[in-house]
Design a protein that fits this description.
It comes from Lysinibacillus xylanilyticus. Keywords: Membrane, Transmembrane, Transmembrane helix. With 266 residues, this protein is mainly alpha-helical. It has one domain (4-261). It contains 11 helices and no strands. Helix 5 packs parallel to helix 8 and helix 8 (155-182) runs antiparallel to helix 9 (186-208). The longest helix is centred in the middle third of the chain and has 34 residues, at 115-148.
Amino acid sequence: MMNFTLLKHEVLATVKLFSIILAVLMLYIISIVYMYNPEMSNTLNKLTETMPELMSAFGMSNIGNTLIEFLSTYLYGFLLLILPLVFIIMSANKLIMGYIDNGSMAYLIATPNTRFKIVFTQAFFLVASIFILLSITTLVAAIFSEILFPNELDLSSFLTLNIGLFFLHFAISGYCFFVSCSSKDLRTSYAYSTGIPILFYLIQALSNMGGSLEKLKYFTIYSLFAPEKLMTQDSSSLWMLGALFLIGLLCYMLAIRVFVKRDLYL
């Protein structure tokens, strides 16, 4: 079902990008956890009052009264959405369309491996990479929170929040992988896999500003990731997670089917 030689190759080929993204995330997470103190909170409140619309756009308008609310505001409104997205876009395009574009796919197909085995291996690698990336960041945030502020982090709610984050990126990665499997060339693949997710994020940012723009939230996938509902384990968050999972699963299934059936001009 999987080509482990190809899987090993992808691990080695992606380790540099993975490490860079992870290092930036860890540095930012540790910094944000450290900033959770009364003095810094006052500074952040003043910053929010100075630029209320801009802070709202990035989901940073409500600092909160607890550690998990603070982390939710400053981690899950921008950085943990954008940096994993960068990894997803670059990886998804490289895993399929990158091979087609540079001619390496002809070699892969010429080996005793079915198209299904090749594309399933690549899909598995992408999902596993995202899961590992987010698992490490979750663990780092939990450990440093416990070291600096013992017993202040609600671990159950924090875990639920990160499960929601994974399902969001699972859905987005499914779309990007589908684009990579179905596009005619690498430029087109990058255009659609980058443009649509960023457009969705910008729509979400506008809807966060409130007023008449709030209705825009119905036109973006990011609305299915609601940290405030996940933290309280609201019942509505369950169908949101289910929707994200189904979107991701459907996209991956379509991507695999398209790749297996498509004509490849190699």
